[in-house]
Design a protein that fits this description.
single chain, alpha/beta, globular
């Protein structure tokens, strides 16, 4: 490992451009794209980088998202490092090859520029699109800042291509708030990224070779001893790799921090939990407002903290339990809904963590930020008030809808 000898170039970028810069530094061989709001400028930036020669990659402009990922699967099977990005209805159109990708154990990085879903008609930010595919076998990491987007795209390749993982990674960033939000960003030197990722060794177990013909994804039948037992072996391998990914994600983040000096919590960030009585759990860009609110309330003597989830799939049960064990009550701020549970999806993951680890405490569900609505410090302060009330026994019967009266 080589330590960073000098800081990278400091520029001003929005989140979509930061993702594109991260992709270029990772040197993919093939990029396939189709524009959709709020992802469109990301692929425009990538197209420009390829056209200018800054990124030496094949660019495929295909007729839709289904073809995007189907084409990239062929490229990945031939040994290419690949990338794409999408949002909302584009992700829905991509669904068939999307669920096939992890089953094929094909590593790649894809950015989900998250947005709410139809209907009513909506093109604004939310986490509903990514949450709808959370159980498809992809690793999901969520970013809080523009800098974290760039760094996580690069780290995503090292996680995906790890020989013990070989699974695709979604690096998710919030539509509107991060996709178009402009801020300071440090771009590492190409030599540092090259050394961090190491030589390309993609799909060493499955790369197509004319000298070594093979079938890919054959029908699971009973002939030749195949059938359900083979299918079970594949599924078991996928789930074991997902579970092991938590360790690899932590190792990769530690390596990146040692080289760049930038420390991003790999699984769960514990913010001001020392002596906290209650905490709020956040995901994505909302975390900044939550931290600001936490700081203000702490200055006023209130014992509050924030638990930020970075890696959402696989869910970091042990890391979450360590954070939860420090407080008496918790609230979960979801930017999406779980229709089957009348709460937020992350709220259900938190309840599962509490049940699995034997922790007992009030756990409130807050749903906010739908369709691009702001979740402000005032909203978080009211959420903290509700969690304090729950800690005293005043538990609401259902989820609290943060923007219902805005």
């Amino acid at each position: 490992m080589t330590a960073l000898s000098k800081p990278g170039k400091v520029v001003v970028l929005d989140g979509n451009e930061a993702a594109a810069k991260g992709v270029a530094l990772a040197r993919p061989d093939v990029v396939a794209v189709y524009p959709i709001t709020p992802q469109s400028s990301l692929v425009e930036h990538l197209s420009s980088l390829i056209a200018s020669g800054e990124l030496d990659a094949e660019l495929m402009n295909v007729e839709g998202e289904h073809s995007v990922l189907s084409a990239l699967q062929g490229a990945a099977l031939a040994g290419a490092r690949t990338y794409t990005a999408t949002s909302g209805p584009g992700l829905a159109f991509m669904f068939e090859p999307y669920i096939r990708q992890p089953g094929l154990r094909l590593p790649m990085v894809a950015s989900l520029v998250t947005r709410d879903t139809l209907t009513p008609q909506c093109v604004w930010g939310g986490h509903q699109d990514a949450m709808l595919v959370r159980e498809c076998g992809w690793i999901h990491m969520y970013c809080e800042t523009v800098q974290e987007i760039l760094d996580s795209v690069i780290m995503g390749y090292k996680v995906a291509e790890h020989p013990e993982i070989m699974l695709p990674v979604n690096v998710n960033h919030d539509g509107n708030y991060l996709s178009f939000g402009v801020t300071r960003c440090e771009i590492p030197e190409q030599a540092l990224v090259d050394d961090f990722l190491g030589p390309k060794n993609i799909n060493w177990h499955a790369a197509l070779d004319p000298e070594r013909p093979m079938s890919v994804d054959p029908l699971t039948g009973n002939a030749g001893g195949a059938g359900p037992s083979m299918f079970v072996r594949y599924r078991k391998g996928q789930t074991e790799a997902m579970a092991h990914a938590l360790d690899i994600i932590a190792e990769v983040h530690a390596d990146w921090a040692a080289r760049t000096g930038r420390h991003h919590a790999p699984l769960v960030e514990e913010y001001r939990l020392e002596g906290a009585e209650v905490a709020l759990i956040t995901l994505g860009s909302m975390t900044g407002a939550a931290k600001d609110c936490c700081d203000a309330l702490r200055a006023g003597g209130r014992k509050v903290g924030v638990i930020k989830v970075k890696t959402y799939r696989p869910f970091p049960v042990a890391a979450m339990a360590r954070a939860l064990s420090q407080v008496k009550a918790v609230g979960v701020m979801d930017r999406s809904v779980s229709y089957g549970w009348n709460s937020g999806p992350m709220h259900q993951d938190t309840l599962s963590t509490l049940g699995k680890t034997g922790l007992r405490m009030p756990c409130l569900s807050f749903i906010g930020g739908l369709a691009g609505a702001d979740i402000t410090e005032a909203h978080f302060e009211r959420a903290y008030d509700a969690v304090f009330k729950a800690a005293s026994g005043d538990m609401p019967p259902g989820p609290l809808w943060v923007n219902e009266k805005d």
